[in-house]
Request: fold
Amino acid sequence: MSSSSRLGKGLSTIFGTDVSQMLDDIQNGQIETGVSEQIRIPVADIRPNPYQPRKIFDEGALEDLASSIKTHGVFTPILVRKSVRGYDLIAGERRLRASKLAGQINIPAIVVDFDDQQMMEISLLENIQRENLNVIEEARAYDQLIKTYHYTQEQVSSRVGKSREHVTNLLRLLRLPEDVQQYVVEKKLSMGHVRALLGAGEPALMRKLATQAIEEGWSVRKMEQAVREAVQKKKHPLTPVITQPDPMDNIYVQEAHRQLEDFFQTPVKIKPNSIQIHFEDENDLTRILEKLSLIEDGGEVE
Reply:
C-alpha cells in the first residue's frame, strides 16, 4: 500500500498496529513515500518536532551515538516533512541531536506528508511503543491530545493501546505541583507514593509531605497514613488525630481492591466500612452504572 493511501487517510488507518514498525518500514524503504530516493538535508534546516513528548535524553548515550556517527555516519534516515522554512522533524530526534554533536553538516532523510495531528500522535505512539517516555512525559502527552483534539480518555486509551485506568492514573499526576512531578521523574517518589499524595489536595501540603517522605524514606503505606492524618488535622485542628486501622493492610482487602479496579477500570478506594468508586464525568458514571446493570437500554435508571 502506498503512503498516499495508507498515510493520507489519517492515523485511524494504523491504530492498533505497531507504529514503530511502520516508521521503520518507511525508513528502510519498505513503504513507498513518494520520494524516489533518500536525500540529504542540512541539519541547520531541520526544526525539532514541536509535538515530541520526550523531553529528557540520556546525554551519555547521545555522546556514544555521536562518536559512532563520526566514524560510520547515520545508517537509518530520519523522517521529516516540508515546512515553510526548511523541514519539521517527525522521527529520529536522537539521530539529529547526535549528528549535531558530531559536527555533521547534512543528514540522510525521507520526506513524508503528515499533518499536525498525525505528527503529534505519531510522536506519542512511537515513544510509548519504544518505552522512551517517563510517566510525567506520557501524562503530558495524553493531556495535550485531550486538550488539543478534544479526545475522551477512552479514545486516548484506544489509540495508545493502554487501559483506561492507566491513562486516568497518569493524568491525575498532573495535579501534582511541578516540583513534585520532578521527584517522580527522578524516581525519588514512586507512583504509589504520589497517588496517595494526591489526597492531600493542597499543593503546599503535597510539597511538605513529599519532601518529608524523601528525607525519611517513607513506604507507600506510611505516605497514605501521613496524608490521612494531615487531612484530618486540617479539618479538625483541635481534635487529637486517631489513626484507624488501614483496611488495605489486610491481604483479602488488597485482592478485593485489585479485582474492583480491574472490573470498573477506574481508581477505587477502600476505607473502613466503605468503598469509593472514582468517575471522571457523566459519561464515565453511565459506563459504571451499566457495568452494575443499574441502567436499562436507552439510558434509563432501573
